[in-house]
Design goal:
Blueprint: E1 9-14, H1 20-36, E2 40-43, H2 50-59, E3 61-64, E4 75-78, H3 85-93, E5 97-100, H4 104-118, E6 122-126, H5 132-138, E7 145-148, E8 165-169, H6 175-188, H7 202-215, E9 220-224, H8 230-241, E10 246-250, E11 266-271, H9 277-288, E12 294-299, H10 317-326
Parallel strand pairs: 1-11, 1-12, 2-3, 2-4, 4-5, 6-7, 6-8, 9-10, 9-11
Helix pairs in contact: 4-5, 7-8
């Protein structure tokens, strides 16, 4: 059977899409709008997804770059990526009530940074410069943290005491990329300590494992996700490294180029951890209209983790914000 006569199919990754931290953050914005009414200000994008941000804006969320942009007496929410202590201070100084929607897995890394800094360790934070999560974690212990942006950055790293060095990482990195950097660091600093538990987010890991499975069987891999989503970008990279001849990141089905389908019988499809499934459904419809109606689920893990909503949603934050202005 020739490639062109083989039946066209889609291999759909499972798990894909929303992780527990993203689900919690998006629901937190929706609940805040229901309970307190619009506007609810959100510092930076609540999660890195264009569709989610646009949908929440229509409901009354206002996204700002800094807490200092929010008028006194309002409510501001911090995104799933986490913020530095200085941002909490800015909000307090600006007389704002706050909701912290930081993913609990990111909060864990923040707590590790604080603990190791108190013990006077040099902390080597593996991550991408400028990413919101890296900025937030670094802000917990700026005098102790050195950013290591990939294995090629290791040569530049210096520490005060090689017997008191620990590594932490941005949660949304590729597992393979992180361990390559860790191996290079261990070669330079043999006494390097690993964190008590793996910092790489379970959802990031699971989605990358599924992508590797797809990449071995598909001529084209499509990842639904935004260009500023670290975990979505990593999924495309992982697909290519795992042998997919072609892989692309798209926000919407309309961004798919039909030329990508030339000679392709099997399309692998997944989505980043901040992507609602409605966007994947649109891609499936788009592919079905072009003959890829046969969909097979490729399941590599079960996900059942959920996080409780931010505790601040149990309080009357509008009243608290009004009181702050009176003080």
């Amino acid at each position: 059977m020739t490639a062109t006569s083989r039946p066209k199919r889609v291999l759909l990754a499972a798990p894909r899409g929303y992780c527990a931290g993203v689900d919690r953050a998006v629901i937190a914005v929706e609940k805040a709008l229901e309970q307190y009414g619009a506007p609810i200000y959100v510092r930076h994008e609540i999660v890195h997804n264009k569709y989610v941000v646009q949908t929440l804006e229509k409901k009354g969320a206002i996204f700002v770059d800094q807490a200092t942009e929010v008028p006194p007496g309002n409510i501001v929410m911090f995104s799933a990526h986490g913020v530095a202590p200085s941002v909490h201070k800015e909000a307090a100084d600006g007389k704002l009530a706050t909701i912290d929607a930081t993913c609990p897995l990111v909060t864990k890394v923040h707590k590790e940074a604080v603990r190791f800094a108190k013990e006077d360790f040099d902390i080597l934070l593996i991550g991408h410069e400028g990413h919101e999560e890296v900025i937030g974690t670094s802000g917990e212990a700026p005098d102790h943290i050195t950013l290591v942006d990939g294995p090629e950055d290791v040569a530049n790293v210096t520490v005060r005491d090689e017997s008191k060095v620990v590594w932490l990482s941005q949660t949304t990195l590729s597992v393979d990329e992180t361990m390559e950097t860790v191996d290079a660091l261990k070669e330079k600093f043999p006494q390097l300590i690993s964190p008590p538990s793996d910092d790489i987010c379970y959802a990031t890991q699971n989605r990358q494992i599924a992508i590797k499975e797809l990449a071995g069987q598909a001529e084209l891999v499509i990842v639904v996700g935004s260009k500023n989503s670290s975990n979505s970008i990593r999924m495309v990279e992982v697909a290519k490294q795992a042998g997919a001849p072609d892989a692309h990141l798209v926000d919407f089905a309309s961004e798919i180029d039909e030329a990508w389908l030339e000679g392709v019988t099997t399309v692998g499809l997944s989505s980043g951890a901040s992507v609602p499934d409605v966007l994947v459904e649109e891609v499936l419809e788009w592919l079905s209209a072009r003959g890829y109606g046969d969909v097979e689920i490729v399941k590599t893990a079960d996900e059942s983790l959920t996080f409780s909503l931010p505790k601040e949603l149990r309080r009357d934050l509008r009243a608290e914000a009004a009181e702050l202005v009176k003080e």
